[in-house]
Specification:
Length: about 400
């Protein structure tokens, strides 16, 4: 077992040579630290021709975007690598390939995705990837079905619930999604012009009760091995390709959390587009984003039902009609978690480029207002929005 130390650029090259599985390891000569997320170091490793060949990612023992005052478990690297390996087993086409990992160093080596771009950045620029939503729905269906009680042996499922118990990372989500946006909190950040709207969230009893229910289900519904942080910044896209990365928030939780997080990020982009693009381009891009929302859900739902019909192993859960009934519960959760993602990304700590890139402060406040009101509507109306058409209609009504 190696002892933990924080990697330098040279360490990362050395490590990639040893564990990258490259035929000519000595051709790897340099690296660049490119991590722009909140938590980790990420090194791209280059060969002599300056071609990026492989990625080395290391967890730091604290939250990178805050500093050493917020310590964080290194075990998240094990969770990330093992979740991605399991998701890769069930959905290899859309899961980044983990080539090697070392729990003691909290390091993993993974395939280079330089031929791809981060989906969020592309959405901010108004660049469309018509196949991405169907592929994301496929990833969600495959990973969530195959790790659930529909498919897993009950002993294996229970062992995996223990193996993927992830208290520190779940605690971040529990605070950032379900508590802080509904309190006065030093980590919150939103346009001052929206103070009264945000203050109303704190005193809205019906909303707070719904959020309590969503948090309770997040805490206790061990339905499937979630990615735990499915947002457009954790998804690489290229022409006809989509790869999900960054599963350190993985744990056994409610399926609707992953699906709702995915839809919530698409809808944040929808709300932000008028602040990012000229009016005609923004209108076109908004329609495409709504298509993405529809396609992601449909691809997930159809994929899940097809897998359930064909591959359910549990005799009781295989009873005709049960999978569809369960999917209706996932839909209601999806709407609720989608709403909490919209609110936590605009009121809470984890702001996103879709909003941050908007230059005009008045426009930014208007886009954030839309995201907050849409989030609130979805949380409150989750039990009454019957299907994807009704969701799209609600989004349009919101503005
Ligand atoms: C302190 S971590 C803040 C956020 O960044 C991650 O990507 C997760 O979304 C988390 O909520
Ligand atoms: Mg991440």
């Amino acid at each position: 077992m190696s002892q933990y130390r924080t990697f330098t650029a040279a360490d990362a090259v050395e490590y990639a040579r040893e564990f990258g599985g490259i035929a000519d390891p000595q051709s790897l000569v340099s690296s660049q630290e490119i991590g722009d997320g909140n938590l980790n170091l990420v090194f791209k490793i280059f060969d002599r021709d300056d071609v990026s060949r492989i990625v080395v990612k290391q967890a730091l023992p604290y939250v990178r975007c805050v500093g050493e005052s917020w310590p964080l478990t290194l075990d998240r690297a094990r969770i990330e690598a093992e979740v991605l390996q399991i998701h890769g087993q069930f959905c290899p086409a859309h899961t980044v390939k983990i080539l090697h990992y070392d729990p003691a160093l909290a390091v993993m080596v993974m395939e280079d995705l330089s031929s791809h771009a981060i989906w969020r950045g592309e959405q901010v620029k108004g660049i469309d990837y018509p196949q991405a939503a169907a592929q994301l729905g496929e990833y969600l269906a495959q990973t969530l079905f195959h790790t659930s009680d529909f498919y897993q042996h009950p002993y294996q499922k229970k062992a995996d619930v223990i193996r993927f118990t992830n208290p520190e990372l779940c605690d971040i989500t529990e605070e950032l999604f379900f508590n802080e946006p509904y309190e006065v909190h030093e980590r919150n950040g939103y346009p001052r012009a929206l103070e009264s709207l945000v203050a109303q969230l704190r005193t809205d009893d019906e909303l707070r009760q719904k959020v309590a229910g969503l948090k309770h289900r997040f805490l206790s519904n061990a339905e499937a091995l979630l990615h735990g942080d499915v947002h457009s910044g954790s998804i690489f896209v290229a022409e006809n390709s989509l790869k999900v990365i960054d599963a350190e928030f993985g744990f056994y939780g409610p399926m609707g959390f992953d699906v709702g997080s995915a839809l919530g990020n698409l809808l944040i982009n929808y709300c932000a587009l008028p602040g990012l693009l000229a009016p005609r381009e923004a209108a076109d891009a908004r329609e495409k984003r709504l298509d993405d929302v529809r396609t992601t859900w449909q691809s997930f739902a159809e994929g899940f039902l097809a897998l359930a019909a064909e591959k359910t192993r549990d005799r009781a859960l295989a009873y005709p009609g049960y999978a569809a009934e369960f999917l209706a519960k996932v839909w209601r959760d999806t709407l609720g978690y989608c709403g909490t993602e919209l609110i936590r990304r605009t009121v809470g700590m984890s702001q996103v480029a879709d909003i941050k890139t908007i230059q005009d402060e008045v426009m930014k406040a208007e886009c954030v207002r839309q995201a907050i009101t849409l989030g609130r509507t979805l949380i409150l109306a989750a039990d009454h929005v019957e299907n994807i058409d009704a969701l799209i209609a609600r989004v349009r009504q919101n503005g």
